[in-house]
Amino acid sequence: MMQKFFHRLAFKIGIVIILIEIITLSMLGWYYTHRFHEQIVQRVIDKVQIPGKLIAQGLLPYSAAANAELLNRLVGEDVVDSMVIWVNGFVVHALRQELVGVLLTQVSELNPEWFTPQARDPFIKFFPDERPPYVMSITPIPGVDGQTPVFFVYLKTNIQQVGQEKTNVLVLFFVGAFVTVWVTSLALLALFRQVILVRLTRTLHVLHAISNGQISARIPPPLISDEIGQLQSEINTMIAELESKINSLHQEIIEGHLMEEALRQSENLIHSLLESLPQYIYSKDLEGRFTYVNQSFCRLCNLTPSELIGKNDFDLHSPEIAEKYLRDDARVIQTGQPLELIEYHEIPGKEGFYVQVIKIPLFNSRGEISGTLGIFWDITKEKKAMESLRQSELLYRTTINALHEAIYVIDPQFRVTLCNSALLQWVQQYSGETQIIGQSIFDVFTSFPQEFHEGYRQIFQTREMLVIENKMTIKGREVFLEIWKIPVVEEDQVRQIITVIRDITEKKLTEKAISESHARYHNLIENAPLGIASFNTEGKILEANTMFIAIFGAPSVEAVHQLNMFTSSTLVEAGIAQDVQQCLDTGFPVIAENFLTSEWDKQGYVRYYLTPIKDLQGRVKEIHVLMEDYTERKSVENALKESETEYRSLFKNMLSGLAYHKVVVDDQNHPIDYIFLEVNDAYERLTGLGKDIIGKRMTEIIPGIRNYEPDLVQIYGNVALTGKETSFEFFFEPFGLWFSVAAYSSEKGYFVTIYDDITERKWTEESLHKLNEELEQRVEVRTNELQKTNKALQESLLTIERTQQQLVQSEKMAALGGLVAGIAHEINTPVGIGVTAASYLRQQTEDMKQMYEGQAMKRSDFEKYLELANDSTTMILLNLRRAADLIQSFKQVAVDQTSWDMRTFRLREYIDNVLRSLHPKLKRTRHIVQVNCSHEIELSSYPGDFSQIFTNLIINSLVHGFEEIEQGKIVIEVSIKEDLLVIEYRDNGKGIAQEHLPKIFDPFYTTKRGQGGSGLGLNIVYSLVTQRLNGRITCRSTPNIGTTFIIEVPLISPIALQQIH
User: Fold this and answer.
1) pLDDT value at position 87?
2) Which structural domains are found in the chain, ordered by start?
3) Is residue 393 helix, strand or coil?
4) C-alpha 885 chain-centroid distance
């Protein structure tokens, strides 16, 4: 029994040893395969954890068609329409989302945990029975949001590689068989030793014991047949299990090789994709060191991968920016959640830009965070575009809300989708609705008439714009509305309708008022006492009123329309055609008077005003003419001229010296000086003072006047201010003459003095007195005579100096004299019109009175008289106002020319005043004055100085420059250069010879000596510009071309600047 027990024990121990060897080999194979699988999977996980929507990819080294055929067998659906691209020589299919689900369901080993956010384990399966064989790798990747996984599906096949793997399987099979046989042999040897040799040994021992007389020894029983069969069966079983394990090991080795190749290809594909992406991609470890950077990131930093790997943000950015990036990485690592933000990115040496940044955590095979992955891309253009879009939308909404028109937009369901503030106010005013957006227009505008809603259904069908203009009664108020309904068409369908409502009630009322005004204007023109007509640039008369027809004596308006303003012989002979041509050529108004004999033999003087009417381009399109019969007034004017001539003759030829003055007062209205406005020839002979003293103060002419006659200014001031006449005698020491003076005032602030020389009488009286005392005072007289002689010599020297100043002053007074001469002529026209209108009104009033007294007056006569009276008084008032404006303009210029006061004034208006004052001189010529000066230029200076400057320059051009020139042109250009006023005065006269140019500003230098020229005009201009205005003046001239003066003066006088400071 013991031997049998031991036999069985040895047999079982052998079996256990064989099983242990087989299990050990299987475990080694499983461990090798599993470890190899983990390493490959970890490499895939580390490489494919990128954000994005990569759904699935098929990778086969065949054509796109073969690739699609293989995928068709997997998903059971056509994938031809899937996107096909080439990456490193492989065909890549990006499958649709629904196809991926079908593909995954074909795998029986599908892990349902893949659909969880924590899914990270890949699935790899080999399909050896497919033709061609292939390996499928499915790897779940966490999505950008950290929730929805994205699957990376990879297919790999290679027929040669599969054949190689089969060879490897056969080699492994033979090796396994050899190992199996070897192990089985060892087991059988051990069994033989335990079963045969041991028993044989024991048998020999028994035989030896029996030979030695040990009868009790027994031979061990032989192995029974069932034990041998059982042993053979167990050995066969072990061999079969060993073969199965070897086959399984071989299969796992083949699959491991394929998986390694698949994962290597997958790694190359992922690396190629990452390197080719335009986004900047990098990964960092937990210490913030770069472990991977793609080519885009390297180009951005201008460094190579080897220069970036191992560095951190502190090596690339400023400490502040690096700290910020470090905080973001720490947040991702701590929370385990992706981070998405927009920030301003800066790279040293490059311009900063805005980037969209996504940072996600990286996990290792144990599920622990091993670092961070970052992707960012330039969104500067998108950000600018969004900002531009936002600004455009803001501008659009602001513009829409700023419009006065009510605007709203409806959709095909007639709901309001957009409206502006004007519509809200409009609807609240008429219907009281406050909520509009989202409502139907039929609900919003319930109180409006039906025609307000017309056309919307039509527009949705025809796609054509509709404009409605209607008069409606809304809440008892009659309004005129202009409604524009504009379709917004997209893809041949009306998506929206824009409605613009414009309240044109005021426009309609205005049109009505304009129509009525036109009728009144036409009636006024037709019944005006002046002839009014308009004609085009060809001279054809377009319209003419009744008075215009009467002036020409034409039988009808049609007859007047036959006239041509350019070619009619009577108009050419009268000079009217030439004036019309001048108005057309220059574009400036023309005022003239001529003697006219019309085609219908009516004769008389006519005064006419030609006004050009210009279009938007500044071209003359029509000319309007205002004409009056000047015959009667011409007679009155001639009488006035004769009277003026007589007055001038008396003024000039009277024996007594006469001077006209204006008193100058201080702030307390006390007289402090007086200005010479006019003197006659006798005054010049008596005093030796010439016309140049006009416009000057007495203290300028004789600075020491207060020392000689301290009460003289006070006496004259009392006369000018109180109007009381006075007369006295005094000895005027500067002249050494006795005068008898009579002073009276014709207007407050002005006075006239009449001087008689009584020196001879006074000297006679003094001589008689001296003769009576001659004996007693001979010595004293001789002494006095010597003293007087010495004093006379001193006074002569002083007189010479003063005479120069007086001559300068007289030049100014000469310009003012021209103003006085032109006053009567300029105010004749408005005063004459007023007189004519008043005379006509008086005559009509007498006629009306007679009709009233004779009880023959009718209502229509009275109404006609009232209309006539209104028109006449209006004409009288307008012309009197014009005369007052002219007088005020003359007074202003005269005052400024004789005043040294500084004030603020607009230069253009002042130049116009000066030109009006010179109109009497300019109107007798055909010369043109063109002023180019902005109306906004304002000066703080001495207006009188500018008046004297422009007057002298224009007079100089008229007298010297335009001598023997029929039509010249003067241009005054005014501009501002920094803080200087630049005046360019030029004429196209005969110019100045080069030898005269250096002397033109010298006093008393003139080329008209003996012909009325004093030589002080330009000297006065030079003195005013350089001394008073603190500026400078230059002159250039070319003979027979013209002369140009450049004047530069400060915008603010230095004295005014001191006062401001």
Assistant:
1) 33
2) 277-380 (3.30.450.20), 395-503 (3.30.450.20), 527-629 (3.30.450.20), 651-827 (3.30.450.20), 900-1060 (3.30.565.10)
3) helix
4) 43
Name which of 624, 603, 611 is nearest 551 in CA terms.
603
- For the record, the structure tokens of 123 come out as 């699935």
**Chain segment 148-181, per-residue pLDDT in tens:** 444 445 554 443 444 444 445 445 544 555 565 5
Rg, the chain, Cα only: 61
Strand ranges of the sheet holding 90-94, from the earlier edge strand across to the other edge: 59-60, 90-94, 83-87
Closest CA to 693 of 731, 741, 644, 657: 657
> Are 262 and 135 spatial neighbours (Cβ–Cβ below 8 Å)?
yes
For tokens 């007798």, what's the residue?
924
Element spanning 391, H or E: helix 380-402
**Dist CA 750 CA 661 (whole Å):** 6
**Whole-model pTM?**
0.30
Q: How far is Cα 2 from Cα 7, in angstroms, rounded to an integer?
A: 9
* Residues 384-418: tens digit of each pLDDT: 888 887 887 788 778 877 777 888 888 888 888 88
Q: Which residues contact 749 (CB under 8 A, 6 or more apart)?
A: 662, 663, 720, 721
What's the rounded Cα separation, in Å, for the pair 602 and 598?
Answer: 5
Calculate the alpha carbon distances from 730 to 661, 685, 741, 1032 in Å: 19, 18, 8, 44
Distances (CA, A) of 472 to 322, 448, 454, 477, 498: 71, 9, 13, 8, 21
Q: Is residue 743 within 8 Å of 726, Cβ to Cβ?
A: yes
CA 318 to chain centre: 38
How far apart are the C-alpha atoms of 441 and 587, rounded to whole Å?
57
Cα–Cα distance, 749 to 665 (Å, whole number): 9
Euclidean distance between CA atoms 630 and 624, whole angstroms: 19
Q: Higher confidence at residue 755 or residue 347?
A: 755
Strand ranges (E), 81-232: 83-87, 90-94, 123-127, 134-141, 150-156
CA 918 to mean position of chain CA atoms: 45
Residue whose pair of structure tokens reads 């920094």 in the numeric block: 978
What is residue 564's DSSP assignment? B
With the C-alpha atoms ordered 902, 904, 907, 909, is the resulting torsion angle positive or negative? negative
856 neighbors 828 (Cβ within 8 angstroms): no
- Which residues sit opposite 490 in a β-bridge? 493
Both tokens assigned to 818: 């021209």
